[in-house]
Write a structure and sequence with these properties.
CATH class of the largest domain: Alpha Beta
Structural class: alpha/beta
Helix content: 40-55%
Number of domains: 4
Largest sheet: 7 strands, parallel
Number of helices: 21
Distance between the termini: 60 Å
Strand order of the largest sheet: 3-4-2-5-6-1-7
Strand content: 15-25%
Number of strands: 24
Radius of gyration: 27 Å
CATH superfamily of the largest domain: P-loop containing nucleotide triphosphate hydrolases
Length: about 675
């Protein structure tokens, strides 16, 4: 399998890469971008000495997929290939492993860690690499790891610190970056080009061959009229109004229409304000309002019973952890209305009409004699589990032969899947054991999923990149792409906007491709120079922010009950985790069940979940480190910070206003096990 040929349009888009130029290949999903990259890598290895090819991906599962399906079959006979993820032992000796391999396939984070590491066994220089292939390269923007990595490249280039690797980017769409006109879209695509130091290429001569290879699906808007009566939703809104009155919404604060994404944004801000102003009533009411808003959104997308169960799950065991009058009111409000809510949710007369439209959309493609394969996309892991339950219990869909399975991203927790579970599900889909994947966005890009004749988007508001990638999954002849939505709803408006942005992106790329090489290079260099300056300014600000407080001057509080539980100086950084090393912290938390991460680590393993001993707020989990230390691993989003400048909240540890020192195992042992350490 080492010898293979490209289609004519693929040959066209790789021409400049074969001449050693930095390029971004722009081809639709299913157009064979990865195969073209393998071809470029093969030619590069044959003509360059010494040669070192590194293939970067943005999701762990793509490492094995690219290795197994593309690079190993075509290059494995003649070259040494290595695949590395955060779970591989190879990451600890990444430097030597790279030096003795011809082709390395890894996540971008692994390479970035190696570039910035001072350890000889892990360190790699960009000059060690001769060809750098970046999959899904449209993610090379803002604070993405792709962009951090390419920032190292750009700075070296501007400083004339050579040699540097050739760059080959792969994308189905760079997107328009939220642009509303052609010039802004051009600016966005140029910025992606500048970040990758590459020109963008597409087929011009062999467009007809590409269209034949990747036909566009037949698109339909399967529209349902708004339900005339919604007593369940109305009852939820009445309960929310009671909470508004109980907490007294600040006069300078405006809450937008409930049941919308905007309302969720408002109550998130309201909760943060309550925390910062030491107003536990405001903060707790905002948290509960968010749950009711989630239920309203579920009610508008899924079954009423799904919305009811989401609230029931939230309030399970809440009464036992109520700590003040606010808790008693909020929990009591739900319990007083629980019976009525359950009754309303079970009344089929007022069921969500979208579900009926979704059923008919699926039945149009599936039948006992139909060999259909489809993907049903929805927004959240919760929604796809609800849809899976609905499909399994729908008599008509079962009689039509619909065999559904869930597909979610890899991660921690019961609603995630392991990589092996993902692979097993896709394999069953390939074999026909499963014919409908109910998926989150994980199936939009990257995963090697067989061609489908039906793609349905349900309850989704995404950008044009995600829409194009989802549409690209429907690649069989006469395949269908359906948007099930409410008449005049936001999904339809977003879909139409995305169609405009997709067209705008194409026009922007055409404008850039018309530029002379000199003009293009001038614009790219200007953007790169400005980006370097902006990064330096941002880094200076981050350092200044972290140095404005000592760690000891910042106190950590439970975000729910505002109980002080730790000092910033208790927190240390351990292999990317922020742990509390103060043994006195144990009196502030209680423990729950064991955490299962679905993967193993060399020096540590997860322990039990930890919660605030006063209010049961979740905080994180214990880490068993080197079989000796038991360290609480804390999620900063579950805590508040008292700083000399006032109380604040942050989403990530990198945003805390003090410096967190690295964990020192030897010092920890001396402090905690003095009798065992000399």
């Amino acid at each position: 399998m080492s010898d293979f040929q490209l289609r004519e349009y693929q040959k066209e888009v790789v021409e400049r890469a074969l001449r050693g130029e930095n390029i971004i290949i722009w081809l639709p999903t299913g157009g064979g971008k990865t195969r073209a990259a393998v071809y470029v890598a093969k030619r590069h290895l044959e003509t360059t000495s010494p040669a070192k090819v590194v293939v970067l991906v943005n999701k762990i599962h793509l490492v094995d997929q690219h290795y197994t399906n593309e690079f190993q079959p075509h290059l494995g006979r003649d070259y040494t290939l290595l695949k590395v993820t955060g779970e591989s032992t190879g990451k600890d000796f990444f430097g030597p492993e790279v030096r003795r391999s011809d082709v390395v396939i890894c996540t971008a984070q692994i390479l970035y860690n190696a570039l910035t590491s001072t350890e000889e066994t892990k360190h790699v220089e960009l000059s060690d690499i001769t060809l750098l292939i970046i999959d899904e390269c449209h993610d090379t923007n803002k604070d993405s790891v792709y962009n951090k990595l390419m920032a190292c490249y750009v700075e070296k280039k501007l400083n004339n610190d050579l040699p540097l690797p050739q760059i080959l980017g792969l994308t189905a769409s760079p997107g328009a970056g939220g642009a509303k006109n052609l010039q802004k879209a051009v600016d966005h695509v140029l910025e992606i080009c500048a970040n990758l130091d590459s020109a963008i290429v597409s087929t011009k001569v062999h467009v007809s061959e590409l269209k034949k290879k990747v036909p566009r699906p037949i698109k339909s808007f399967d529209i349902v009229e708004r339900r005339l009566q919604d007593p369940f939703g109305d009852h939820l809104k009445c309960m929310m109004q009671m909470i508004h009155e109980f907490m007294t919404v600040p006069p300078d604060f405006n809450l937008r229409q409930c049941g919308t994404q905007e309302y969720e944004e408002d109550v998130v801000k309201l909760e943060k304000r309550g925390v910062s102003e030491d107003n536990i009533l405001l903060a707790q009411c905002a948290l509960h309002l968010r749950q009711y808003n989630d239920a309203l959104i579920i009610n508008g997308t899924l079954r009423m019973m799904d919305a009811y169960r989401s609230l029931e799950e939230f309030y399970t065991n809440r009464w036992s952890t109520a700590i003040d009058r606010t808790d008693f009111f909020l929990v009591g409000l739900f319990q007083e209305n629980q019976t009525e809510l359950r009754k309303l949710a079970g009344d089929s007369l007022f069921e969500n009409p979208k579900m009926g439209k979704l059923e008919s959309t699926l039945l149009n493609q599936f039948g006992p004699s139909e060999a259909s394969k489809g993907i049903l996309f929805s927004k959240t892991r919760k929604s796809i589990h609800c849809l899976y339950d609905w499909v399994r219990n729908n008599k008509d869909l079962q009689e039509a032969g619909v065999k559904a399975a869930i597909l979610t991203g890899a991660g921690n927790g019961t609603t995630y899947m392991t990589q092996n579970e993902q692979a097993d599900t896709i394999n069953k889909f390939r074999q026909g054991i499963v014919n409908l994947l109910i998926s989150t966005s994980v199936a939009e890009e990257g995963l090697d999923i067989p061609e489908c004749n039906l793609v349905v988007r349900y309850g989704l508001l995404t950008n044009e990149i995600a829409q194009q990638q989802a549409s690209g999954r429907a690649r069989t002849t006469d395949s269908h792409y359906s948007v099930v939505a409410e008449a005049g709803g936001r999904e339809v408006k977003r879909e139409l906007t995305n169609e405009y942005l997709e067209e705008l992106t194409g026009k922007a790329i055409a404008e850039i491709q018309k530029m002379s090489p000199r003009e293009f290079r001038r614009k790219i260099t200007e953007l790169q120079t400005n980006a370097v300056i902006c990064r330096k300014i941002a880094e200076t600000r981050r350092i200044k922010k972290r140095s404005c407080n000592t760690a000891d001057s910042v106190k950590l509080l439970c975000r729910k009950c505002f109980t002080p539980v730790a000092s910033g100086s208790d927190i240390k950084l351990l292999e990317g985790h922020y742990v509390n090393v103060n043994p006195d912290f144990a009196r502030h938390y209680s423990v729950g069940g064991e955490v299962a991460l679905g993967k193993s680590f060399e020096d540590w393993e997860p322990g039990r979940r930890i919660h605030c001993s006063k209010c049961n707020q979740k905080w994180g989990f214990e880490m068993k480190y080197k079989e000796i230390a038991l360290l609480p691993n804390l999620a900063i989003k579950e805590l508040a910070l008292n700083t000399p400048g006032g109380r604040i909240t942050v989403k990530q540890w990198k945003d805390v206003p003090f410096t967190v020192e690295d964990f020192n195992f030897e010092e920890y042992c001396k402090d905690n096990f003095p009798d065992l350490v000399d």
